[in-house]
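Work Package 4 report. The design task specified in the project plan requires that, given a folded chain encoded as structure tokens, an amino acid be chosen for each position. We show below one input record used in the internal validation round.
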């Protein structure tokens, strides 16, 4: 497996030969082509389980902006998946999705093993803390669009991912993904490299590493709304009982925090109708690693 660093930050890289041949993307096309009323039978479960279908504009990755111009479907490992969220209209969907999740999970362990070496932590420590994790597989469809859109509305608002790392597969050559370069204060188009996975460090991992690793702000802009766009991220998260605390020997930048409570709180910021406020202290502590809008221009 070959790692190609993006000329930006080492917190985002490309890896090639990442089992691309088994992921044609056809199964996701079949799901998104179902009538809206059918897809809504599998409507999003809420942030506690993080399963099911989100329709257009239901999620907003930048909380201060309109809902994103995308639809999505989430599933998880077989031991956590709820049967009623599998689309019964597509019998082959479940076995294909389970295979994809299993391969993505195995790939994530390979990357976590490499990060153990980077962070100089005992072999197997990070992998073990993700074995019983809260990781989520997602398929994304950014449909073609004609006509007016809301002010500041984009396909995917500027954000950083929430958990440990994200593996991203892209299934077409439609541009739109951009990465923020803090040094130049500019958004840079993420190049499309055939048969590759984008590997992205997320907020929880940055916090865990005491900012040795940096989470990468990114967005999906309206580069060509006449074309549909498809992608598939795998959000790699630790076990629900894991406490995120400094892995390094440097002085702590952040207090310890529950991985699951932090993840639920961050997810709740992204959904129009989901106001998760069961633990005010989680929000207070989590805000220490929530990107401020002032850190980068959302629209430049």
């Amino acid at each position: 497996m070959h790692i190609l660093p993006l000329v930006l930050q080492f917190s985002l890289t490309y890896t090639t030969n990442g089992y691309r041949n088994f992921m044609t993307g056809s199964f996701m096309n079949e799901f998104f082509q179902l009538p809206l009323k059918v897809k809504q039978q599998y409507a999003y479960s809420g942030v506690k389980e993080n399963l099911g279908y989100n329709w257009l504009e239901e999620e907003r990755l930048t909380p201060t902006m309109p809902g994103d111009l995308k639809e999505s479907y989430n599933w998880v490992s077989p031991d956590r998946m709820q049967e009623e969220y599998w689309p019964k209209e597509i019998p082959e969907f479940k076995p294909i999705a389970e295979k994809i999740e299993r391969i993505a999970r195995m790939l994530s362990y390979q990357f976590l093993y490499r990060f153990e070496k980077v962070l100089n932590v005992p072999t197997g420590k990070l992998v073990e803390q993700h074995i019983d994790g809260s990781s989520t597989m997602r398929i994304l469809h950014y449909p073609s669009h004609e006509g007016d859109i809301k002010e500041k509305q984009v396909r995917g608002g500027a954000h950083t991912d929430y958990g440990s790392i994200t593996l991203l597969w892209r299934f077409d050559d439609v541009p739109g993904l951009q990465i923020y370069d803090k040094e130049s204060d500019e958004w840079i188009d993420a190049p499309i490299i055939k048969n590759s996975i984008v590997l992205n460090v997320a907020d929880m991992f940055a916090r865990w590493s005491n900012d040795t690793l940096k989470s990468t702000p990114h967005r999906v802009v309206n580069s060509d709304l006449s074309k549909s766009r498809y992608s598939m991220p795998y959000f790699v998260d630790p076990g629900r009982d894991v406490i995120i605390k400094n892995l390094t020997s440097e002085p702590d930048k952040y207090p310890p925090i529950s991985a699951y409570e932090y993840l639920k709180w961050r997810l709740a910021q992204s959904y129009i109708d989901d106001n998760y406020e069961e633990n005010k202290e989680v929000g207070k502590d989590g805000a220490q690693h929530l990107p401020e809008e002032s850190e980068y221009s959302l629209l430049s």
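The longest strand covers residues 229-236. Validation will be extended to a larger panel in the next phase.
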